[in-house]
Amino acid sequence: MRTSTINRKTAETDISLSLNLDGSGISNVESGCGFLDHMLTLFAKHGRFDLDLKCIGDTQVDDHHTVEDIGISLGLAFKEALGDKKGVSRYGYMILPMDESLIMSAVDFSGRGYLNYDLNIPTEKVGTFDTELVEEFWLGFIRNAECTLHIKQLDGSNSHHIIEGAFKSVARSFKEAVRIDAKFSNDILSTKGVL
Fold this sequence. Notes:
Blueprint: E1 3-9, E2 13-20, E3 27-30, H1 34-47, E4 50-57, H2 64-82, E5 91-98, E6 101-108, E7 114-118, E8 125-126, E9 129-130, H3 133-145, E10 148-155, H4 159-177
Parallel strand pairs: 3-4, 7-10
Antiparallel strand pairs: 1-2, 2-4, 5-6, 6-10, 8-9
């Protein structure tokens, strides 16, 4: 089983996270940020990843450090769980409808961190959550998972739907990209021989 456990403590956050890439979508998420809990729970469900996460963060300041550091920790967990990436499909993509919103995502677990983030979220907040933190989350993730990720909004006007559509779309892209191709389980999908 491809699993990882990350414990990351700073002056701003204390995070413990365990991930199973070959799970069934079971999650237990306590980030201290209700909207992020919702996004990570549906991310795990739609990616079929098992995710256990607890974060104690300085949310009395705001949610920035918590959201960014969880993105970092989840990225580290993906990198660790993928190991040498033998047999991994590497690429994944999804165009996902979420009511009026339509979100495209595509990923390459290439070993190179790059984010192309193109969401036009119309409000500054969803509940108490600062919507600008969605980009911070994915930046933390890609830099530490070392993957290329494109997230593009094709349509949508409701902030909650746009963000939820993005997390679901990315989860589905990741599910495809981390899938093991049984026929090539000892092969790394790169002419360089490493990812």
